[in-house]
TrEMBL record:
It comes from Diploscapter pachys. InterPro entries: Amino_oxidase, FAD/NAD-bd_sf. Gene3D superfamilies: FAD/NAD(P)-binding domain. Pfam families: Amino_oxidase (PF01593). It comes from the Eukaryota. This is Amine oxidase domain-containing protein.
Length: 417
């Protein structure tokens, strides 16, 4: 049996790791299985890769961290690939200076909806009133058709306006009303009555220093060397070399005759397969296979801006892993203090680094250069860096940033697949 996989990023590598594991155990079906992974880049990792800039700083393609949560198999695979890891405790906060009408940073604990007791008095009172109204309702009669409805159902209009709406537009580039509620799952923390009461019992100092420990990534790991991309390149190198076709672009897929056409070293070639694993954006697969009409699916693009800095690190940032920014006056929605994670600078005694993620609609005419300049200005305004300490600036635009969970996604996919 021949399996072809499009993409040698975490999903494809996970399949390769499992097949290799089964073959090593002597499984007969696995031993009779051939796997070929096509990867258009000259390295494995996809959007989880790490690149080195001209000044020797390493940059991930986003704030990637590793935690296995309910998936110990994932931890087993990544630890097999890389032996040296740093164990870190999340310490992240949310900048909500616009609520307080102040310049620079005004940080509240993460997740922001847990920080209601720290909000300005008039906003806090409205939030508490709306939350208590929801606790008192035995059963809601409100229909939930989109993410805005979901927020209104669980939190109320004030938290929607002061946090969820501005942050949603920063990350997803659309208003919450244009998003499905089905993506939420455990990704957005609800605020139970008992939790709110315990928060209101804390004094201001206790609240300001709290990380509420919500979410599966409150503790995480990061490779000591090489960035996140080191995990996937190391995994590739430990797997059979002949399984990988790097620098090879898939041109089309004939799903009826089970053949794949690809470009390798400037030559078009064809390969038969028995089973196909696709890890690329689904709209690209549809374009390659013509299996159905073009998909009406939305996504945004993300500009990564990495800033290498001369030491010492800005004292304010020494305690944090990353920060969130609903503030519309800066382009980034998240800033990661990347050099806190591992050895990602030319010399950790002389440099530190900070990485910013900026989301744009796919047709936004803003150039990468403009985003970089706005990012640098934003970091300065927030008091996170000074321009005279900049040692390196790196940027890249990821044309497929986040798939946007619009209300039509599940019905559309269910109809066609």
């Amino acid at each position: 049996m021949k399996i072809v996989c499009i993409g040698a990023a975490p999903t494809g590598l996970g399949a390769a790791f499992r097949l290799h594991e089964l073959q090593e155990s002597g499984d007969e079906k696995a031993l009779d299985t051939q796997l070929v992974l096509f990867e258009q880049e000259p390295y494995a990792g996809g959007l989880s890769c790490t690149v080195k800039d001209k000044n020797g700083f390493l940059w991930d393609m986003g704030g990637h961290i590793t935690f296995d949560h309910n998936y110990p198999y994932y931890g087993k695979a990544t630890k097999w690939a890389v032996e040296e890891w740093n164990q870190l405790t999340r310490n992240c906060m949310v900048d909500m200076n616009y609520l307080y009408k102040t310049d620079g940073l005004r940080l509240v604990p993460y997740p922001a909806q847990f920080a209601v007791p720290l909000f300005p008095a008039h906003i806090k009172e409205k939030c508490l009133m709306e939350l208590n109204e929801r606790y008192q309702q035995a059963q809601s009669t409100r229909s939930v058709h989109n993410f805005e409805d979901w927020v209104l159902e669980h939190f109320g209009p004030t938290i929607l306006d002061v946090f969820f709406r501005p942050y949603t537009k920063k990350v997803w580039t659309v208003d919450p009303v244009k998003m499905s509620p089905n993506w939420v799952g455990t990704r957005v923390a609800k605020l139970p009555k008992e939790k709110l009461e315990s928060l209101c019992a804390m004094n201001e100092k206790e609240l300001e220093t709290a990380d509420f420990g919500w979410g599966p990534n409150s503790f995480f790991t990061f490779p000591k060397y090489g960035g996140t991309g080191n995990v996937w390149e190391s995994m590739r190198k430990k797997l059979p070399t002949d399984w990988f076709k790097l620098g090879t672009k898939v041109l089309s897929v004939d799903h009826k005759n089970k053949t794949i056409r690809y470009l390798e070293e400037g030559q078009e070639k064809e390969m038969e397969y028995d089973a196909l694993i696709n890890t690329t954006p689904i709209d690209l697969l549809v374009e390659q296979t013509k299996i159905c009409p073009p998909l009406n699916l939305a996504h945004n693009k993300v500009v990564i801006v990495g800033v290498g800095m001369h030491a010492p690190m800005t004292p304010l940032l020494e305690q944090f892993t990353w920060l969130y920014f609903p503030d519309r006056n800066v382009p980034f929605f998240r800033v990661t203090i990347l050099s806190r994670y591992g050895e990602v600078t030319p010399d950790s005694s002389k440099y530190w680094s900070i990485m910013c993620e900026c989301a744009l609609q796919i047709d936004d005419p803003t150039t990468e250069e403009q985003v970089v300049e706005k990012t640098l200005n934003g970091l300065v305004v927030k008091g996170m860096i000074t321009r005279d300490k900049i040692a390196s600036v790196y940027s890249i635009t990821l044309p497929y940033g986040y798939p946007i969970p619009t209300p039509n996604v599940i019905p559309f996919m269910s109809h066609h697949f």
